[in-house]
Write a structure and sequence with these properties.
Strand content: under 5%
Low-confidence stretches: 146-158
Number of strands: 0
Radius of gyration: 20 Å
Mean pLDDT: 87
Number of helices: 6
Structural class: mainly alpha
């Protein structure tokens, strides 16, 4: 192998290695942040004073507690999708399963628009789109909550 070719190959291998290390670092940061978020939600859900403090004015602390539990599950699935443990097809299966539950549909009806507003990248927007599609399909099947994104309320407490 000629020297210029060897340098080119070494540069390419080094570049790929740096890219993979950076990707692993971002995944680790996402997992660490998700762990902190799960602990925060767990603490809120377990403490009636925290529930009363954080509950939006139109939700009772009990109803907000159910929303917090739904948020924990949806956030868990979100980070699994972000780090590649779920592909789009597997995420859709999971979304369909959780949207079969009334509490999750009520959560998405109330806080789904906020999750869309806070989306920062295409991964989060894809996650939200899949969840919204499954929400709409489940809501249409049950008729229990508004069946369109326009029927959802926006709130900064999701």
């Amino acid at each position: 192998m000629k020297t210029p070719d060897a340098v080119l190959v070494a540069t390419a291998v080094g570049t790929v290695g740096i890219w993979l290390a950076e990707r692993r670092h971002r995944q680790r940061l996402a997992l660490d942040a998700a762990g902190i978020h799960q602990q925060l939600l767990s603490g809120i859900a377990a403490d009636s004073e925290q529930l009363a403090l954080w509950a939006p004015g139109d939700l009772t602390p009990e109803a907000f507690g159910r929303a917090v539990h739904c948020n924990r599950l949806i956030s868990f699935l979100s980070v699994k999708f972000r780090v590649g443990l779920l592909d789009r097809a597997a995420l859709r299966v999971q979304a369909r399963s959780v949207m079969a539950r009334g509490a999750t549909r009520a959560y998405w009806a109330r806080f789904g628009a906020f999750r869309e507003q806070e989306a920062t990248d295409s991964v989060t927007r894809t996650f939200n789109r899949i969840f919204d599609e499954e929400y709409c399909a489940a809501a249409d099947d049950t008729g229990s909550v508004p069946s369109s994104a326009s029927g959802r309320k926006s709130h900064s407490g999701g």
